[in-house]
């Protein structure tokens, strides 16, 4: 992935130099230590994040990544993104009077973060996953990139064969 990003960004004149680190050091010596990012040891990192649950999980997904008042290791705001307007939207969304208002505020915060290019999502959420007709309750989990195998069941009338 590093070489792909290096080549792609090189096409627009951005030089990317890698910092090779063992997996054991990736988070504990680089990402969750704010001073390392502040000192420019790294500028770009390949990490991933998934919601605690799927559905309306904006608070557990969005705030740890983009509330700039809470820094690692207490958050996952590894790039130290801090925008007072986004922080204010997060606060308003947390205390919104209803679901519609909350959704609108999270949407505004999301657009602001993407306008500021705080992150660049490089994964494809449209992964094709198939199952046979006798498989029921096949619920896709993006974090695992597959179905939740603990909850599937097979139609006994269609098994065998």
**SS-derived structural category:** mainly alpha
Number of strands: 4
Unreliable segments of 5+ consecutive residues: none
Euclidean distance between termini CA atoms:
42 Å
Radius of gyration equals 20 Å
Q: Reading side by side through the largest sheet, how are the strands ordered?
A: 1-4
β content, as a range?
A: under 5%
Mean pLDDT across every amino acid position: 89
Counting DSSP H or I runs of 4 or more residues, the number of helices is 6
SSE succession: HHHHHHEEEE
Percentage of residues in helical conformation: 25-40%
> What can be said about the biggest beta sheet?
2 strands, antiparallel
Please give the domain count. 3
Shape: globular
Features of the shown structure:
161 residues, mainly alpha, 3 domains, two-stranded antiparallel ribbon, 37% helix
Briefly, what is this?
The N and C termini lie far apart (42 Å). The chain has helices spanning 2-10, 23-31, 34-38, 58-66, 84-94, 99-115, and strands at 135-136, 140-141, 146-147, 153-154. It is mostly helical and 161 residues long.
